[in-house]
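Structure ticket #2291
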Amino acid sequence: MLTIRDLKMTLGGRTLFENAAMQVNAGDRVALVGPNGAGKSTLFAILLKEKEADSGVVERDPWTMVGYLPQEAEAIGDETVLDVATGRVEELPLLDRRLHELEKAGDVSSAEYLETHSKHSALSDPLVETKAKKMLRGLGYREADFNRPAREMSGGWIMRARLARLLVMEPDLLLLDEPTNHLDLLSLLWLQNYLKNYSGALLLISHDRQFMDEVVSEVHEISEKKLIAYTGNYTDYLRQREERYEQRVAAHKNQQKEIAALQEFVDRFRAVPSKASQAMSKLKQIERLELIEKPLAPKKPFRFQIPEPPRGGQRVISLEGIHMAYGTHSVYRGLSLAIERGERTVLVGPNGSGKSTLLKILAGVVEFQRGERKLGHNAKLGYFSQHRADTLDPDKTVLDEVLASAPAMREDEARGILGSFMFRKDDIFKKTAVLSGGEKSRLNLVKFLVDPPNLLLMDEPTTHLDIQTVDSLTLALERYQGTLVFISHDVHFIRHLATKVLHVNAGEITPYVGGYEYFLEKVGALNDERAALTSA
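Resolution: structure written out below.
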């Protein structure tokens, strides 16, 4: 289906990989992993013929239909959500035009013609709208959204509609670049279960370890300029990578001992006439050896201690009789809720159920129509949303922002924490005005961690973070001495942190005093997470 041989790619004077090889066969489930900047998205661009490698071979079966989901996309024109999911306004006319061009040129046996024809047939299917609606529902859309103009939606929602279109087309090979980035927990679990039973092959880039554990059966890591294959899911890959490292360390040490012994013989007997020929033979033996380079140790999560926040009262915050509506749309009627000191609470529930609104009510950033919000004794509240860019001083550098948040922190400590959140070398001297949205989000997260409140409210804190950084954040929050309320679609993150679950649905909140697994057991669907969340 897809074969890569002897691939070499240099970008900006840096070799990303060389002599890289990989094969994807029908039905394979493959994850492509590696640190940020390793070349994962570049490899995708080569496979999609958007970039040309320096050398090597990329072969694709001419009968293989490839579908690709990029990380970002925008709506064009006035197409509705359903138009995007069916492709009838944007994709289908382009395919139709290209088919006519290829037919006119007599190029009806090429791989491009075969793939274009397959995609056109999939989107021309009389059942395409029915299929599209099914995918949209699974990805969190309501029926009322189907005919809304897509340009009214956020980029994340447009990505969901494009993902729905890909799934409608059912490509033989799906290339997915961070497919879970724009999904809430329910949609992620639906996609996870859908892909488990997908008939085609998958090649994906993801920073969600639980998603990879559930979906993939093979991992290829870009490391030391090579593509290294591991069998199994992400957890299997971590174990095998550690074993491989230990074996290579042992092999390197043994070879160095062998070289040292040979060299000692050469140095000792080179000038001895009776031993000179033997010494030269040993020297040639050293020269013939294929040297084993000392392997780089696998990267470990950066461990840092969140400073202990000021101690507050037993009841950290409470809501009493809250009525909240946006215009005519009522979100909560008579909501009452208490958060106790030391709880780590995750909010779960369908899209649009009011999770982010609840977090904003707790944070005091939205006005409700009736009821009372009470902060507990000595409560120091911090709210981390994905839209906190305005809190940064555009004239300050990244390092300045962190040091201003924690004046007692040493510069080397600040540099270490920033490094763990992907601010490397000269990045820390960038003015915040030039940072990307993801960089601003990460910087705000660091500022919270170096000067923590005793009540931390976090909305999707793992977005824009790679796996090692998510692990660093998880380890830090596990030792956090304050109270945490958060929303996340990262199941691994939830499982490690949540001690309490609030299921939010249709303005009603059902508490489960226990972790995520306990919540699933109580709703009676441990073997079907999607069914549990939608039927509770």
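Closing remark: Residues 234-269 form the longest helix (36 residues).
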